[in-house]
Amino acid sequence: MTPNTPPTILVVDDTPENLALIGECLMADYQVRVANAGARALELAAMAPQPDLILLDVMMPGMDGYAVLQRLKADVNTVHIPVIFVTALGATEDEAYGLSLGAADYITKPVRPAILRARVQTHLQIKQARDILHHHNEQLESEVQRRLAQYHKVQDVAMRALASLAEARDNETGHHILRTQSYVRILAQDLACQPRDAALLTPDVIENYTKAAPLHDIGKVGIPDSILLKPGKLTPDEWEVMKTHAQIGADAIWRAIRSDPEHEAVAFLQPAIDIAWHHHERWDGSGYPSGLRGDAIPLSARLMALADVFDALLSPRVYKTAMSFDEADRIILEGRGTHFDPEVVDAYCRQREAFREVARRFAAPSPRAELEAA
Length: 374
Description:
The protein is α/β, with parallel strands linked by helices. It folds into two domains: 8-138, Response regulator (Rossmann fold), CATH 3.40.50.2300; 170-373, Hypothetical protein af1432, CATH 1.10.3210. 56% of the residues lie in helices and 6% in strands.
């Protein structure tokens, strides 16, 4: 029903006299369409413009009114159309049965025009109010989704901006963030299809892991430049200082979460603590800072460990040249069960081509290109 257009009423009855009587009663105020059989009624109910209300006889040959109503209510395209039974069946149990099937009302024959018009007008007003409410709810839902998308975008930007602070001090580029983030997502999505981790790795959890990945090295902002940027091998004492970046990062993220009393606005940062704190742990317990081993290492950190090492192997550093994909692949496989969770390595093996594609797509520009761009 559109503004300035009379509502459309579909009248269904196998008796021509009843169709004529009801049509004459309503045609002054409504557009009236008629059907003399159940099958035809279903066809007209599905046609545009759809009726705003259906007046339906019960006792018809072939498909009776009850069957027609059940078909209408089972179809998503017609379930919303209110149906009023108009029938000679006046027993209480007949009316109760019709209403139980989803009829909006029940009018007994012989039809009294004033009663019919009043019932029709009432149910059309109810439908109009329901349609307005439905449209309003759709608009609200659309606005909620739009604002939620904005909120998530702000989260992503904030995470990457924070991560860039650490990357900038480590002579890295944002490409490292994009690559490792992509690797974490690829591994998580693969493991979500495997028995061990399927229950944990829901779409929301995978999204949170992916969002948190850029903050894995945020603690490097607390490492002195003399150590962080040293071109040669670190001394044992310097290495101990370097290892503190894991704890520094986890503590910083925890302080951010603690600043929100209800922890709701920053709940997405919870996985970031595990990632920052434990992405240097090793499956065999020889990692740092806590020496965790096996499943005691949070899954998010186990994913990050492989993603970070893989990217580091492919990337040039002040103290080394970049390895080839095949060399990096060999080292990852050698670390199965010692450095890395065996099932995470297996996921990597299944997703080698996806890893290779990410490495190509987000390849860091060469020093010459960066100088030319500057």
